[in-house]
Design goal:
Helix content: 40-55%
Number of helices: 13
Structural class: mainly alpha
Largest sheet: 3 strands, antiparallel
Strand content: 5-15%
Number of domains: 3
Radius of gyration: 23 Å
Distance between the termini: 56 Å
Length: 277
């Protein structure tokens, strides 16, 4: 008979093989049933695999949601601070970091993001952390832009339009996921670029209101923060990023249509790409 220890160790080893990439619960379930056909969570007093992991596999932690599914990652990996280097040196303003770091922008502009933002007062750097990562005590959490603020941005944009365009867009703001039909209608009205510019400006203003946009002078006394990676110069970071993008673009150009359709792309990135073209 399959025992708890064997299944638990197998699940941990499975995540170790793909670390740091998380796996969905449905994927782990398939792997577990393939390795242990007799395995059923109910046999161990658990309703689901999620319940089994929570009770019996302390080395695995929930990473976030993947549609209706839950994704998992090694707890040791999740407990590490996930720090995204931002372009510029430590005296760069927080607003500049927001506009030059896609991960930072996406986290702040997404009310439902599982990631968190923190400002390091000593250096002025803004960092993106996994939901279960622990910031240092003196780090200041930056609240993400709220759904209400994003809705108000949509209302303000429509309010400045001619009556005929405003009458078409305003009813869409009442829908639960208003931003989807709203953007589609903006495209048909030829207002896409104007909306993108307006929205980005308002989100920058909201971020500046919450954090403040003045450069922060790096501290010159006290112990250094050991968890922070060494800063890189802006040209070097941009050069590296440009190289990665060129390689990715070259690879995509060589792929067939069927291979392109099979790509597993985060929906949030797809929506961001559509709204920034």
């Amino acid at each position: 008979m399959t025992d708890i220890r064997s299944v638990s160790d197998f699940l941990v080893r499975t995540l170790q093989q793909v670390d740091p990439r998380p796996l969905k619960g449905s994927e782990l379930a398939v792997f577990a049933r393939t390795a242990y056909p007799e395995f059923r969570p109910e046999s161990f007093g658990c309703r689901t695999l999620r319940d089994f992991i929570r009770k019996n596999v302390p080395d695995i932690a929930e990473f976030g949601r993947a549609g209706m599914d839950v994704s998992y990652q090694l707890r040791a990996t999740q407990e590490k601070l996930v720090l995204e280097p931002c372009a510029g040196d430590e005296s760069t303003s927080a607003v500049y970091q927001l506009t030059t770091n896609p991960r930072l922008w996406k986290t702040f502009a997404s009310p439902d993001s599982v990631f968190r933002l923190f400002l390091i007062p000593d250096s002025g750097m803004v960092r993106v952390l996994h939901p279960n990562a622990q910031p240092l005590p003196h780090w200041r959490e930056i609240p993400r832009v709220s759904a209400g603020v994003l809705l108000q941005i949509g209302r303000d944009f429509a309010a400045d339009l001619p009556d005929i365009q405003r009458s078409v867009l305003t009813p869409l703001l009442q829908e639960p996921k208003w931003w989807i039909p709203y953007f589609e209608r903006l495209q048909s009205l030829g207002l896409k670029s104007k909306w993108i510019e307006f929205r980005r400006r308002r989100i920058r203003e909201e971020f500046q209101r919450v954090v403040g946009g003045s450069p922060v002078t790096p501290r010159t006394t006290g112990e250094p923060i050991a968890t922070l990676p060494p800063s890189s110069s802006e040209p070097a970071l941009r050069s590296q990023a440009d190289s990665i993008r060129r390689i990715a673009a070259d690879v995509v150009q060589r792929m067939t249509e069927s291979e392109l359709r099979s790509l597993n792309l985060p929906l949030g990135y797809v929506m961001d790409s559509l709204t920034t073209r």
